[in-house]
Specification:
Two copies of one chain form a homodimer.
Chain A: H1 10-30, E1 34-37, H2 45-55, E2 60-66, E3 68-74, E4 80-86, E5 92-99, H3 110-119, H4 123-126
Antiparallel strand pairs in A: 1-5, 2-3, 3-4, 4-5
Helix pairs in contact in A: 1-2
Chain lengths: ~150, ~150
């Protein structure tokens, strides 16, 4: 396999920063999200560390546990997310810079929302999960609809 | 202070589920997000536990660390999020059911994205953070723009 490590220098980090700036511009001006596949580039671990240090750390971290764990952490630049997908064995299988207002994986798909909506109304009765008996009290007012307190 | 605990019964959980279903319908049909302020309702801890059990657990958890920690966990119903805000001392100051495709807090504000974009291009040079010297190699090809590998 070709050794690409000679590419791992300052210039590459600078190029990535320039590329991220371009994706941010497109996001701001055209509302179009974009991403950079970091594992598809000849980046050494120290190059990735330098990029990570340049981008810094934001306030938000997202975890998704499905087939393996995905983590999406906000960088110090809002709209720039560092996304890592691991397989069930914990091996990192993808590493991306995502440039988007919202990381794609956090968005609930409309079809899933609709399916959930359809099964929700029966949820308390369907499988016998009821409010613990010890706290049920047959006082007047019990079961009052809290609609007026809802935002 | 009035004791509202007598309201904490089965009927209230059922009412909340009905209310969540209504918010989901509005989300699906009108693209409008909504929320329920759980701390503004007379819910006992066991009532909250019963609601939490009814809604189940999804795959996504979001943490935001700013002035205190906020956690947003997806329930078993996509688009229904259980959100908790704590203050710096760790006290829970807000607890909400959010019904939205994306929890509001995860969305990067456009103004913040723009400000980040403006300071990004100088990030590697501005504060002297450079690629570690030990890994910089002055080989031909170093600094090649990785544009062709970008998605």
């Amino acid at each position: 396999m070709t050794d690409f490590s000679f590419l791992a220098d300052d210039g590459l980090v600078d190029s990535l920063i320039t590329e991220i700036a371009g994706l941010l511009r497109r996001l701001i001006e055209q509302d179009e999200a974009g991403s950079i596949d970091l594992l598809g580039l000849p980046l050494s671990p120290s190059c990735l560390a330098a990029l990570s240090e340049c981008l810094g750390q934001g306030e938000i971290a997202v975890q998704l546990d499905a087939a393996g764990r995905s983590t999406i952490r906000e960088t110090g630049f809002p709209g720039v997310w560092w996304t890592t997908h691991a397989d069930k064995a914990g091996r990192i299988v993808a590493m991306l810079i995502e440039v988007a207002f919202v990381p794609d994986i956090v968005r609930a798909p409309r079809d899933d929302v609709t399916r959930g909506f359809q099964r929700l109304p029966n949820v308390t009765r369907a499988d016998g999960r009821r409010f613990p008996a010890t706290t049920v009290r047959s006082r007047p007012g019990a079961g009052t609809r809290p609609g007026s307190r809802l935002q």
